[in-house]
Write a sequence for this structure.
């Protein structure tokens, strides 16, 4: 079966909600199924806006919980208005001489929504091992709810709501959240050593000096006649024979002895 999700923020055409014929379930229980009709009948679902749980659901009575519509803001007020109008239309279309039991109920001046919880309810949460029974006070809950049928008993009748999927946001104490960012771990970067080639010396080219105009060459003077060089008188050299030198030395030795 296809489905249709109602948007409580839009204008809802309640004429598209059709009622089937009464179906006998047992001797004292009957059902009338609800459908959304456009091209074909579709199951009806509605998104429940986020609410704050001001009490827990430790004791499930008949697998049913009463969800507080709290705090009140525009989305939650639209949800309450939708069910009030839908139930009014249902009571106009179906004439049953028994007390009508509304899905909306007051508890300590707070409007609650009665929702049946199937055994296979889907719960999405950041917390682990979450169940309806351990929902904490002041946590946040939103969900998708189905509107399957109208139930009829011997003593009362009313609209049935079933939880299809819940999104549970725990209190911050239940989550491992740090408000202070940890200092990032500094990664050690291995330096890359590059071989630096010696720079070649640049040869600086000095700008060339402007060439000086050439001086006129001096006239070549005629060479003076060279003066005759004076002759240096040569010293006279005497040659001694070896025998004469030896006699002279011996005589000098004898003189020294006689002194």
């Amino acid at each position: 079966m296809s489905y249709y999700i109602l948007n409580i923020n839009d204008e809802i055409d309640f004429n598209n909600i059709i009622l089937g014929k009464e179906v006998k379930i047992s001797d004292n229980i009957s059902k009338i199924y609800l459908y959304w009709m456009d091209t074909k009948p579709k199951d009806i679902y509605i998104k429940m806006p986020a609410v704050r749980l001001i009490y827990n659901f430790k004791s499930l009575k008949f697998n049913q919980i009463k969800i507080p519509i709290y705090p009140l803001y525009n989305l939650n007020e639209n949800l309450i208005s939708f069910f009030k109008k839908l139930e009014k239309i249902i009571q106009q279309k179906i004439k049953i001489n028994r007390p009508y039991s509304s899905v909306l109920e007051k508890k300590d001046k707070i409007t609650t929504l009665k929702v049946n919880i199937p055994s296979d309810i889907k719960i999405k949460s950041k917390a682990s091992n979450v169940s309806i029974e351990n929902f904490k006070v002041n946590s946040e809950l939103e969900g998708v709810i189905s509107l399957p049928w109208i139930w009829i008993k011997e003593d009362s009748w009313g609209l049935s709501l079933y939880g299809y999927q819940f999104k549970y946001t725990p209190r911050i104490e239940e989550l491992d959240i740090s408000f202070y960012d940890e200092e990032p771990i500094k990664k050690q970067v291995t330096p890359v050593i590059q071989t630096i080639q010696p720079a070649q010396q640049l040869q600086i080219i000095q700008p060339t000096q402007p060439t000086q105009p050439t001086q006129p060459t001096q006239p070549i003077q005629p060479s003076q006649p060279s003066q005759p060089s004076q002759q240096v008188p040569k010293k006279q050299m005497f040659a001694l024979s070896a025998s004469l030198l030896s006699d002279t030395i011996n005589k000098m030795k004898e003189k020294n002895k006689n002194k």
User: Anything to note?
Assistant: The radius of gyration is 61 Å.
